[in-house]
Design brief:
single chain, 290 residues, alpha/beta, Rossmann fold, 9-stranded mixed sheet, 6 helices, 9 strands
C-alpha cells in the first residue's frame, strides 16, 4: 500500500513538473515574445533600434514620368527568402525632394521594410495633393514596382515631413486600410481635425519649429486623433523644422519601432513604445498599446 502511495506521489509530481516546464516553453521571455508571422529580424535591443538593421538593401530609381507622383527612390531588402515585407511611402516637405531624406530608406529598409521616398509632381503641392500622391505611390509599389513581389499589399504605411507630414495624416484619414502613419513635423493649414483617423499614428514634432509650430500643428493634430486608434506624440527638444531631414536618434528610433509594431504587428517592440522616449523630448504623449 505504501509503495502505491509513493508511486502515485511521484507520478503526480512528474505530471506537475511537466506542466510547469511546458508553460515555460509556451511563454518565452519578454525580449523574445512575439506572435506575428510577419516579424522580421532578431530580437530588438535598446541598441539595435538606434542602428541599421540586419537586412542588406538595394535601391531602384523610379522616373518622374510615372503617373500619379514625381518618381523617387525605392530602398528594399535584397533577401528573397525572408517572406514578404511591409511597405512605406514617404513624401517630402514643401519645395523639398527625396534627396533631402537620404536617411529614411537605408535605416528603415535595413530592418525589413520596402521604403519608397517619392518626389511630388510639384515642389509646391499642398498637403492634400501629397496625400493623394502617397496613395498613388503605394499603388505603384504593390502593382508595378521592381519590389512588388517582395511586398505584402496588406501591410502598408505612409510617412512624410512638413507638408508631406500633413499629407500623411490626410492619407491616413482617407484610407483606414493603411496599417500605420508617421508624420514628421507635420504642417497643414487647412484643418487641425483628424478625428476620422482610424490608423495608429505617430507624430514627431520639433520644440523650436517656427514653420510647423507644435502648438499650432503637431499638438492639435495629435489631440484630434481618437485614442482608440493608438497614437503618440514626441516633441524632440532643441530641434527645429529641419529635423525631418536628419538622422536624429529619437526620431529614427520612434519611427522604426512604430512601424515594427503596427505594420509587422511585432509585439517584441511594445517594450520600446511604452514609453517611446525616456529623455530628449520636451513633450511626450502616448496612448500605449495593450
Amino acid at each position: 500500500m505504501r509503495k502505491r502511495s509513493v508511486g502515485a506521489s511521484i507520478t503526480a509530481f512528474l505530471a506537475m513538473l511537466a506542466m510547469v516546464l511546458g508553460a515555460l516553453v509556451a511563454q518565452p521571455t519578454a525580449a523574445g515574445a512575439q506572435s506575428s508571422p510577419f516579424a522580421k529580424g532578431p530580437n530588438p535591443t535598446a541598441t539595435s533600434v538606434t542602428q541599421n538593421g540586419t537586412f542588406a538593401t538595394t535601391t531602384a530609381t523610379v522616373p518622374a514620368s510615372v503617373a500619379g507622383f514625381g518618381g523617387g527612390t525605392i530602398t528594399y531588402p535584397t533577401s528573397t527568402t525572408s517572406g514578404t515585407f511591409g511597405a512605406i511611402a514617404f513624401a517630402p516637405g514643401f519645395t523639398a525632394t527625396n534627396a533631402s531624406y537620404t536617411w529614411v530608406g537605408p535605416r528603415i529598409a535595413s530592418h525589413g521594410f520596402v521604403v519608397f521616398a517619392i518626389n511630388t509632381d510639384s515642389r509646391f503641392d499642398n498637403p492634400s495633393s501629397r496625400a493623394t500622391q502617397l496613395q498613388n505611390a503605394l499603388n505603384y509599389l504593390v502593382n508595378n514596382s521592381v519590389a512588388a513581389s517582395r511586398i505584402d499589399r496588406n501591410r502598408l504605411a505612409v510617412s512624410g515631413h512638413s507638408m508631406g507630414g500633413g499629407g500623411t495624416l490626410i492619407a491616413a484619414d482617407r484610407n483606414a486600410a493603411i496599417q500605420a502613419a508617421v508624420a514628421l513635423q507635420p504642417w497643414n493649414s487647412s484643418s487641425t481635425n483628424f478625428s476620422g483617423v482610424d490608423v495608429p499614428s505617430l507624430i514627431v514634432g520639433a520644440q523650436n519649429d517656427t514653420i510647423a509650430a507644435v502648438n499650432q500643428h503637431s499638438i492639435p493634430f495629435y489631440n484630434s486623433i481618437p485614442a482608440a486608434s493608438e497614437k503618440a506624440l514626441v516633441v524632440v527638444a532643441g530641434q527645429s523644422h529641419g529635423l525631418g531631414t536628419t538622422l536624429n536618434t529619437i526620431q529614427a528610433r520612434s519611427m522604426l519601432v512604430w512601424l515594427k509594431r503596427y505594420v509587422d504587428d511585432d509585439t517584441r517592440y511594445e517594450a520600446f513604445i511604452c514609453p517611446l522616449v525616456t529623455s530628449g523630448a520636451s513633450d511626450y504623449r502616448n496612448t500605449c498599446p495593450g
